[in-house]
Design a protein that fits this description.
By secondary structure, the protein is an alpha+beta fold. It has helices spanning 16-33, 88-104, 118-124, and strands spanning 4-10, 49-55, 58-66, 74-81, 108-114, 127-128, 133-135, 138-146.
Length: 148
């Protein structure tokens, strides 16, 4: 039996407990695990949609969707999967693209990918559009995808 649940909520719809759970996961992964002293909580959160995948009630994958102006690519960021290389990242990315295309009318997407995760994003359809650069102390590449 599949005990997974996917929710997409705008920041304004999140409960305090949901926001705490999201921020704790992001800090645990990006700041503590990756030893990256970055500004994890930023001004983009309040304008974003937050996509959560829960298994048996536990947050196991997350990302945020940042809408842009008309004709501009939607930005996907803060992609996290608690368990790596088991399909959670692919699933949450596909859900995000589906939501953004259906609910926001998005056809173009962009993200900043840590280079080690390049294959994950390519598997969903993203293409590299930049050289490697350092962002928050980690090597990144910018990737984009357009859907019809």
């Amino acid at each position: 039996m599949d005990n997974t649940e996917i929710t997409v909520k705008h920041y304004s719809e999140l409960t305090k407990d949901e926001l705490f759970e999201i921020l704790k996961l992001r800090v645990d992964v990006f700041v503590v695990e990756q030893e990256c002293p970055c500004r994890e909580i930023d001004e983009l959160d309040p304008q974003s949609y937050h996509l959560c995948l829960r298994e048996n009630g536990r947050l196991t994958a997350y990302l945020r969707i940042i809408p842009q102006g008309e004709g501009e690519p939607v930005v996907i960021g803060r992609v996290i999967s608690v368990r790596r290389r088991c399909g959670l990242g692919t699933r949450i990315l596909r859900e995000a693209v589906g939501f953004a295309s259906e609910q926001l009318g998005a056809r173009k997407f962009t993200l900043q990918a840590q280079t080690y995760a390049q294959g994950l994003y390519e598997g969903v359809g993203f293409k590299i559009v930049s050289d490697v650069y350092i962002y928050d102390g980690q090597p990144h590449i910018r990737m984009e995808m357009t859907i019809k």
